[in-house]
């Protein structure tokens, strides 16, 4: 239900959600098709959002603050809370809406490795924007959310809806994709951070062809893996040159009988393996056992 007061539509109804899952963004394919005058690269990418992510919880408080915990919380120990994308997102949206900074105690459980090519920080920022929008007490126009998201980072707009999208432009030009067939996905990171700017800088070729046209529908899993086989991640080679462990991860994944396709996501170092949904648990367990130093996480669907 929506009513109006002098400041715009006021929302009535159930209390705003307190918890957001900030899903990992996985680039199933990523072509670098050019470079803008400002140095940002033009991309053509197919991104999906499995049910693997950080968790952001909001509790009423006297003032805004953020606590970071979870298995990868320590990786952000050198990032002061004010520099964390969560607080930057909250302040940016409050500013754009000309509303007071919300008094919330935010708790971020960092379950995704940091600087790992699956957009954890961007997902956290988008989760914070969704939380603040739901606490704003009025409808927040989608254009405002998108504009604030884009100013926080190229990957943040796609993380707002956290639904499968084709990403073009610098990642901000978003289009829907055909429904995805049942496929499981396992993420593997060798626990070595990779800095995104360094990978783009190390690229040899910046004017690659775009993704092949997407079909109207993928008949089955084989149709999607067949489509993906004709695509690449153009950042894989430069990332691997900076972080040779990526090559080791890919070699291990590609040697598994259950794996239909393995590739790096984003600017690395996280790689993904696609397999039958029923094989996800066994593959995850096998990889964890054989490589206890790696981070391994599985999802029975590309998009929950
Ligand atoms: C490569 C991608 C693919 O989805 O994913 P990640 O590896 O970060 O997960 C993204 O484009 C990353 O997006 P995001 O991490 O939000 O980038 P930003 O913070 O805006 O930019 C970080 C730096 O990456 C480079 N950059 C980023 C995006 C882009 N389209 N071209 C670029 O050249 C620029 O050097 C920029 O200074
Ligand atoms: N909430 C956050 N989670 C992760 N990184 C963050 C966060 N806030 C700020 N950062 C900064 O953003 C950088 C990129 O992080 P991240 O989004 O994890 O990379 P990627 O998109 O490559 O997975 C980190 O090195 C860190 O300094």
Automatic annotation (TrEMBL):
UniProt cross-references to SUPFAM superfamilies, sorted A to Z: GHMP Kinase, C-terminal domain (SSF55060), Ribosomal protein S5 domain 2-like (SSF54211)
Active site: 25, 155
Annotated ATP binding sites: 113-123
Any one Pfam family match given in the protein's UniProt record, by short name: GHMP_kinases_N
Pathway given in the UniProt record: Isoprenoid biosynthesis; isopentenyl diphosphate biosynthesis via DXP pathway; isopentenyl diphosphate from 1-deoxy-D-xylulose 5-phosphate: step 3/6
Family named by the database record: Belongs to the GHMP kinase family. IspE subfamily.
Listed name of the protein: 4-diphosphocytidyl-2-C-methyl-D-erythritol kinase
